[in-house]
Automatic annotation (TrEMBL):
GO terms for biological process: DNA recombination; DNA repair. Homotetramer. Forms an RuvA(8)-RuvB(12)-Holliday junction (HJ) complex. HJ DNA is sandwiched between 2 RuvA tetramers; dsDNA enters through RuvA and exits via RuvB. An RuvB hexamer assembles on each DNA strand where it exits the tetramer. Each RuvB hexamer is contacted by two RuvA subunits (via domain III) on 2 adjacent RuvB subunits; this complex drives branch migration. In the full resolvosome a probable DNA-RuvA(4)-RuvB(12)-RuvC(2) complex forms which resolves the HJ. Keywords: ATP-binding, Cytoplasm, DNA damage, DNA recombination, DNA repair, DNA-binding, Helicase, Hydrolase, Nucleotide-binding. Residues 147-196 are annotated as: Domain III. HAMAP family: DNA_HJ_migration_RuvA. One of its GO terms (molecular function) is four-way junction DNA binding. Gene3D superfamilies: 5' to 3' exonuclease, C-terminal subdomain, DNA helicase RuvA subunit, C-terminal domain, Nucleic acid-binding proteins. This is Holliday junction branch migration complex subunit RuvA. Belongs to the RuvA family.
């Protein structure tokens, strides 16, 4: 089982990043790939979860051990797979997540993609009281200095990959037309709008 990788970030896409270690490129699925963009072509350390299935071996990556801990708690819930867990982490509101779980706020939890009422109730049942350490819910926030004209398109592509519906995203996209920002910030703002 892998704990972390340390290598050169060679690629950032809407769905994953690629970290090169000793000439081998590792494809790592992450919650918000563009949050790693600042370190493109530089050395970085990514905390890992290694999933082995009959048809595939997949790597999931995290900025911090705390972020990984949140992910592991989420996938321990029946009905939540790695993709849904990443979508929840991508909202970047883990304090709100913990508050919703501890307060039995099923309505809030069902706003996450692919989380129905039954799964939300299971989250409350399985995870209430498990996020007692505030350090565990702290997620590293990375600022990106590079601005691109395609940032909004990249953000929408990443949101689709997280499981949000195209119809929802078209409304969000119209709201941001004429603005300039990073893909990471567009994703964060979009997720916050969708959670309201």
């Amino acid at each position: 089982m892998y704990d972390y990788l340390k290598g050169i970030l060679s690629q950032v896409t809407a769905n994953y990043i690629v970290v090169e270690v000793a000439g081998i490129g590792y494809r790592i699925n992450v919650a918000n790939p563009y949050s790693f963009s600042e370190q493109l072509h530089q050395e970085l350390q990514v905390y890992l979860y290694h999933l082995v299935r009959e048809d595939a071996q997949l790597l999931y990556g995290f900025h911090t051990e705390a972020e990984k801990a949140v992910f592991l708690n989420l996938i321990s819930v029946s009905g939540i797979g790695p993709t849904s867990a990443l979508a929840i982490i991508a909202v970047d509101d883990n304090e709100g997540l913990v508050r919703a779980i501890d307060n039995n706020d099923v309505t809030y939890l069902t706003k996450f993609p692919k989380i129905g009422k039954k799964t939300a109730q299971q989250m409350v049942l399985d995870l209430a009281g498990k996020f007692t350490d505030s350090k565990e819910i702290a997620v590293k926030k990375t600022q990106i200095s590079i601005k691109e004209n395609t940032a909004l398109e990249e953000a929408m592509e990443a949101m689709l990959a997280l499981g949000y519906k195209a119809a929802e995203l078209r409304k969000i996209k119209k709201f941001f037309e004429g603005t300039t920002d990073t893909a990471e910030n567009y994703i964060k703002s979009s997720l916050k709008m969708l959670m309201k």
